[in-house]
C-alpha cells in the first residue's frame, strides 16, 4: 500500500542482507543502503575481508555472516540464523559469476555448479526471508545478474545460460509475492570495474597477444558512454529499487551498462 508520508529514499528501521558484500558491487551496495539508514548484514565467504568491509559502512548496528556460495547447505544455515535473530526486509542476491569460455567447450558440471551457486542459493535465501517480509507487508529482493539476460555475451556460455534462468525465476517470484507488498527486480550490470572483470580480461589476454589493459580498453570502446562502470554506479540503481520510492516497480530487468545493451 502506498504511503505518501514515507520518505521515498529512507530505509531507517529496515534490515538489509547483502550477499557477496566483502568487495565490488556487493560492498558498494551495502554502503549505499547503510547510508540510507538501513542496518546491513554482510554475507560472503571471507570473514577477514568482511570485517574490514564492515568498518567502511556508515551508521551503526551492522553485522557480518560467513558462508561460501559453493555450499548450499552453508548458505541455508547462515540465512536461517540471520532471519531468526533479525527479520530481513531487503535481500540483495549477488555472487561471482563462472569462468568464461564458449558454450561448445563447457563442462556439464560447470552448468550444475553455477546453477546451484546462483539459482539454488537465491531460492534458499528468498524462501528464508519471505515469511518476515510477508508479515511486515513490505519487502525488496534485488538480484544482481548480467546484461546477458537481454543479449547473450560472447565467450560466456555457462553464465549466459544460468543468468537467463535466474531472470525467469525472479519474474515468477515477483508475480507471486507482489500482493504482499514485496517487489522482486533484477539489476543487470554491464562492464564494471570489479575483480571479476579484471579476471576475465586477464584470462582473455593469456590466450591472445594483448595485455589485460588492452582488453579492458577494448571493452570500454564498445560502450556508448566510452568507459566501464564503477561498482558505486550499479549500487545506486540497486539502492533505488530497495527504497520506498520503487514500491510500484517489480519484475523488471534494469540494465546499468552505459547504453551498451543493443535491445530495448
What are the secondary-structure elements, in order, as H or E?
A: EHEHEHEHEHEHHHE
Which oligomerization state do the chains in this entry correspond to? single chain
Residues in β-strands, percent: 5-15%
The rough form would be described as: globular
Please report the distance between the alpha carbons of the first and last residues: 30 Å
How many β strands by DSSP?
7
Largest sheet: 7 strands, parallel
Q: SS-based structural class?
A: alpha/beta
Give the mean pLDDT.
95
Number of helices: 8
The order of strands across the largest sheet is 3-2-1-4-5-6-7
**Unreliable stretches covering 5 or more consecutive residues:** none
Q: Can you tell me about this structure?
A:
This protein is an alpha/beta fold and 264 residues long. It is 45% helix and 14% strand. The protein contains eight helices and seven strands. It has helices spanning 24-35, 47-54, 72-85, 108-136, 157-177, 195-206, 212-221, 231-242; strands at 15-19, 39-44, 63-66, 90-93, 139-144, 182-189, 253-256. Strands 3-2-1-4-5-6-7 form a seven-stranded parallel beta sheet, sandwiched between helices. Helix 1 links the parallel strand 1 (15-19) and strand 2 (39-44). Helix 1 crosses helix 8 (231-242), helix 3 (72-85) runs parallel beside helix 4 and helix 4 (108-136) packs parallel to helix 5. The longest helix is centred in the middle third of the chain and has 29 residues, at 108-136. The two termini are 30 Å apart. The model has no long low-confidence stretch (mean pLDDT 95).
Amino acid at each position: 500500500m502506498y504511503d505518501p508520508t514515507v520518505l521515498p529514499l529512507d530505509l531507517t528501521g529496515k534490515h538489509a542482507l547483502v550477499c557477496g558484500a566483502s568487495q565490488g558491487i556487493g560492498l558498494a551496495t551495502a554502503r549505499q543502503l547503510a547510508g540510507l539508514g538501513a542496518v546491513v548484514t554482510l554475507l560472503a565467504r571471507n570473514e577477514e575481508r568482511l570485517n574490514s568491509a564492515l568498518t567502511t559502512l556508515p551508521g551503526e548496528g551492522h553485522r557480518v555472516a560467513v558462508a561460501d556460495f559453493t555450499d548450499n547447505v552453508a548458505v541455508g544455515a547462515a540465512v536461517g540464523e540471520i532471519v531468526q535473530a533479525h527479520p530481513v526486509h531487503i535481500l540483495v542476491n549477488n555472487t561471482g559469476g563462472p569462468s568464461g569460455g564458449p558454450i561448445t567447450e563447457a563442462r556439464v558440471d560447470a552448468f550444475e555448479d553455477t546453477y546451484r551457486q546462483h539459482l539454488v542459493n537465491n531460492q534458499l535465501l528468498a524462501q528464508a526471508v519471505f515469511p518476515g517480509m510477508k508479515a511486515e507487508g513490505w519487502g525488496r529482493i534485488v538480484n544482481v545478474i548480467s546484461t546477458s539476460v537481454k543479449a547473450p555475451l560472447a565467450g560466456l556460455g555457462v553464465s549466459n545460460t544460468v543468468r537467463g534462468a535466474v531472470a525467469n525465476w525472479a519474474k515468477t517470484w515477483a508475480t507471486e509475492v507482489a500482493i504482499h507488498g514485496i517487489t522482486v527486480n533484477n539489476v543487470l550490470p554491464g562492464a564494471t570495474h570489479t575483480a571479476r572483470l579484471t579476471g576475465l580480461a586477464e584470462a582473455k589476454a593469456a590466450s591472445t597477444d594483448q595485455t589485460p589493459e588492452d582488453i579492458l580498453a577494448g571493452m570500454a570502446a564498445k560502450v556508448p558512454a566510452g568507459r566501464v562502470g564503477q561498482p558505486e554506479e550499479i549500487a545506486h540503481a540497486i539502492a533505488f529499487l530497495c527504497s520506498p520510492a520503487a514500491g510500484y516497480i517489480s519484475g523488471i530487468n534494469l540494465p546499468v551498462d552505459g547504453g551498451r545493451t543493443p535491445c530495448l
